[in-house]
Amino acid sequence: MSEWKVNKKDEAMLNNFVSDQKAQVILDGKTYTLPVIIGSEGEKAIDIRTLRAETGYVTIDSGYMNTGSCGSNITYLDGEQGILNYRGYGIEELANNCSFVEVAFLLVHGSLPTQSELSNFSRLLGRFALLHEDMIHFFDHFPPYSPPMSILSSMVNSLCNFYPEMTENPVEDIDLMSARLLSKIRTIAAFSYRKSLGQPLVYPRHDLSYCANFLNMMFDSPVRPYEVNQNVVAALNKLLILHADHEQNCSTSTVRLVGSARVNLYASISAGINALWGPLHGGANEAVIEMLEEIYQSGGDYMKYLDKAKDRNDPFRLVGFGHRVYKSHDPRSRIIKAACDQVLAALGISSDPLLDIAREIEEVVLSDSYFVERNLYPNVDFYSGIIYRALGIPNNMFTVMFALGRLPGWIAHWKEMWDDPNWRIGRPRQIYTGPTRRPFVPIDERE
Ligand code: CMC
After folding, report:
1. Per the CB 3.0–4.6 Å rule, which of 50, 286, 353, 374 could disulfide with 398?
2. Does the structure show a pLDDT above 50 at 171?
3. Is 23 helix (H, G, I), strand (E, B) or coil?
4. Which residue has the CA at smallest separation from atom 36 of ligand 1?
5. Does pTM surpass 0.90?
6. How far apart are CA 292 and CA 300, in angstroms?
7. Are 123 and 240 in contact (CB under 8 A)?
8. Active site residue 419
9. Is the pLDDT confidence value at 11 over 90?
10. Residue 323 annotated as catalytic
């Protein structure tokens, strides 16, 4: 099969995929014919872009369950078969063979880097790793209990004040912009952790790889030097790759929507970080560990939690299960589950009671009719917290780790949106359901 090349023509995407098939809608006795678009992996869509202009009708789709917001050539996922590809490469191959930096390059540029492209990109990552010293003072002024995701989004938003020069030609400068963001966000994340401990900041080192550098900034200390453990580096690489993109999820759609108003990359990514923070999205990884710890500390009776999750009158959800798109196994969760055993063995952790509880819950859930009927399988967040814990990452940093991983995807989508000749500002319609026009009542006449 020939290599898929991203070029300007392909990026005009949707119009290149209009098929011979047509859809018909009958409204008020009149038949309207609508084009059908079939994507490169066979995904089908009815193109309603002219629907309102032609018919006066809009469509309603709460939660965008059936709405394709754009064409995209970054990530393909098949929720029924549990397939996830970045730029045409299977997630399993990428996770087992690549570094996170290679995958970040792939997502942003569309092709895997050559050795020299990778060296250049890595050099840029090294060059941009420092934070402007004035930014470092920010950390002193957040209250000590500030959630790390709030610190991260504030700091990323403020990057446009310190590095405004790159926002003029963002797509041409994407190498610089993406290297700057990828590198600085790692430093911001590690510094916010150090500050939360009241410990001295550890500056980035030019001689360490992306993940090793992050771990060193997190854990090195003047009184206990950090020794980079390659097993830990490999596990972190894998986790970041698995999180690197997931097409039009809530945070990525947020980045695109905010960016569609032509706002700069940093502000768009900052908005994406806030979306990711939610417990139904990236915040679930922290919630999973909290739930497993609670089950463990209360004696291990997980059936009580399963019953609560099944009770329609109880808002509790079994975190780490279910996904809007995957209606069978989440391929990322399978890789992470397998990696859990390897990581724990490599780190000499003979058993982890939370992992044991997690495995038992999964086994019961996979044969319980409530979960089976609703296609609720473990998602990426179910096992990732267990690995992060084994790597020494504290619970409140889990979602920050997700953000580090998701960053290349956000950048790639922002770039694709920015460069798309079909780009329009994102602006959904609504169906108004409030009161119809009524007379104004002066305040002294109101009852
Ligand atoms: N526990 C119990 N019931 C569930 C769960 C769950 N985790 N997830 C969905 N359901 C039920 C839900 O109550 C509904 O039942 P019914 O048809 O009887 O009303 C049915 O399954 C369909 O759920 P939904 O809320 O319509 O599905 P959705 O596609 O809108 O939501 C989800 C997807 C991920 C928000 C949801 O499954 C959930 O809340 N999961 C727990 C939180 C979680 O693990 N989030 C991480 C998602 S993966 C990483 C990421 O995207 O960031």
Report:
1. 286
2. yes
3. strand
4. 322
5. yes
6. 9
7. no
8. no
9. no
10. yes
Q: Is 262 helix (H, G, I), strand (E, B) or coil?
A: coil
- Cα(280) to centroid of ligand 1, in Å? 8
User: CA–CA separation, 358 vs 59, rounded Å?
Assistant: 41
Nearest 10 degrees: CA dihedral of 11, 14, 17, 19? -170
Ligand 1 centroid, distance to 116 Cα (angstroms): 44
Helix axes 353-365, 380-390, angle to 10 degrees: 170
DSSP 167: G
The pick from 280, 328, 384, 406 for probing ligand 1's pocket by mutation, whose C-beta has the most ligand atoms within 8 angstroms, reads 280
Query: 30: part of which helix (H) or strand (E)?
Result: strand 30-38
Mean pLDDT along residues 78-97: 96
Q: Per the residue annotation, which of 323, 330, 413, 420 is the catalytic one?
A: 323
For the record, the structure tokens of 308 come out as 């609560």
Residue 394's CB: how many other CB atoms inside 10 A? 15
Query: Poorest-confidence range of 1-5, 96-100, 256-260, 437-441?
Result: 1-5
Measured from CB, residues less than 6 Å from any atom of ligand 1 are 63, 249, 280-282, 284, 309, 317-324, 374, 376, 379-381
Confidence (pLDDT) at 5: 46
How many angstroms is it from 40 CA to the middle of ligand 1? 29
Q: Write the pLDDT tens digit of every residue in 271-308.
A: 999 999 999 999 999 999 999 999 999 999 999 999 99
pLDDT in tens, 36-49: 999 999 999 999 99
| Bridge partners, residue 32, by sequence | 25
Instruction: State the pLDDT at residue 442.
Output: 97
d(CA 340, CA 333): 10
- Which H, E and C letters describe 44-71, residue by residue? EEECCCCHHHHHCCCCCCHHHCCCCCCC
Task: Tell me the CA–centroid distance for residue 320 and ligand 1, in Å.
Answer: 9
Q: Of residues 47, 220, 245, 381, which has the active-site annotation?
A: 381
What pLDDT is stored for residue 2 in this prediction? Answer: 36
Over the range 1-32, which residues count as b (16 or more CB within 10 Å of their CB) and which as e? eeeeeeeeeebebbeebeeeeeeebeeeeeee
List the one residue out of 200, 214, 127, 130 whose CA is nearest residue 407.
Answer: 214
What's the rounded Cα separation, in Å, for the pair 244 and 296?
Answer: 31
